[in-house]
Amino acid sequence: MAEVKPEDMVHHLPMDQLQGFEYCIDSNPSWGEGIALGFQHYILSLGTAVMIPTMLVPLMGGDDHDKAKVVQTLLFVTGIKTLLQTLFGTRLPTIMGGSYAYVVPILSIIRDPSYAQIADGHIRFLQTMRAIQGSLIVSSSIQIILGYSQLWAICSRFFSPLGMVPVVALVGLGLFERGFPLVGKCVEIGLPMLILFVALSQYLKHVHLRHVPVLERFSLLMCIALVWVYAHILTASGAYKHTALVTQINCRTDRANLISSSQWISIPYPLQWGAPTFSADHAFGMMAAVVVSLIETTGAFKAAARLASATPPPAYVLSRGIGWQGIGTLLDGLFGTGTGSTVSVENVGLLGSTRVGSRRVIQISAGFMIFFSMLGKFGALFASIPFTIFAAVYCVMFGIVAAVGLSFMQFTNMNSMRNMFIIGVSLFLGLSIPEYFSRYQQGPAHTKAGWFNDYINTIFSSPPTVALFVAVLLDNTLDVRDAARDRGMPWWARFRTFRGDSRNEEFYTLPFNLNRFFPPS
User: Fold this and answer.
1) 314 and 504 Cβ atoms separated by less than 8 Å
2) Quick one: which of 332, 399, 430 has its CA closest to 178?
3) Number of alpha carbons in the 13 Å side-chain half-sphere of residue 436
């Protein structure tokens, strides 16, 4: 066998900007293409916007009309939060949607005896929603203070490329329960969607129409439309008439009851459910979810920057984005969305799938959210897409985000046993500990202090949060004296400050010349 010459070996140099993107963060497609891509991001964001209210509103005592109104409100506020984040926050192309991290403390409020014993379902729904609103308003101060005081910027200086590998990877991998386990609940719809999407977006991505790779760029819209029609044909033909209730819920296209329950025109407004109520016990429990969503958002920001072909966000910009996330959570509390704020991970993955990381596309998507949330019937039509279809897409999108996290290993020395130990232990515990907590219906912490139970159960049910605690602790305490180069610190050194790299000004400067009034540090 011939000896391989060193010059024949392919050597891939580390790149702080991901290459091969058609449009990066500050370049824009044509208006027609941008509107189509923005609508595609809007459709993808509907999965979480519908799933969270569908899960929580019935437990709160609400009916289909209440659920439809919460979905509209969540979409409306998501559009506002996204515009604020892309204009004044990190300026990354990220959609600020609802967060599953808030489910544990919200369930604790729902189970509170003072609300659970109310006989009238609608009154119980209103009282519970007002309690959730009050807790969100109070707990949002954590993100606002950490962000605008630049305390989170100080904390982020302890983050190295090595420490971010398990955190960003588990932002995607940690959502595995919303992937194929949900596809399997209606495999005759979910599996064709998964196979068709992979085939069009990857194997046929070189198909061009007028020099535009239409299948790579718009395969999500095409696949959802085709499979949605296929699912409607199955429903109309009576394929699910005699099946189990759970199968009908996951497969039928007429089970959401959103269209019939929505008004033609409805504009959400602050305090629409009434004046929020405040409880120290509930607020303290909600603060744990705020911390979790802050950490998950930090990992998602790192992934979004990579998939927008931008440089890693400086600590100042990252902290600024967290401050605006806190404002977003405050808006969630004022409007009553029933959950808090975080980056939509699936939409971050779509940046990579389409190879379009343009900020303008996400802002157009935010416009669609606001517009269709006010036109209730039209928005409800799109929101009635079976969740199994979204779950199939999540299998791809969450995987892309996880791969972005693993790509940070290129900046580190993976021939170092120290680094392998840190990444391996962080990844394993980041998956194993939340899996242990998920086996308990209300979490394993059962003390008399309800807020403490919510704290423990919420924090340790989040894979990225556990991974961050483990990875950052080990990375900053284990043989750290001579490990700076192995950890990848030289690669990120110039991105620690706003003026450390000239590209930071190009990607992250505030619009309307606002940097004159808010000079970056």
Assistant:
1) yes
2) 399
3) 11
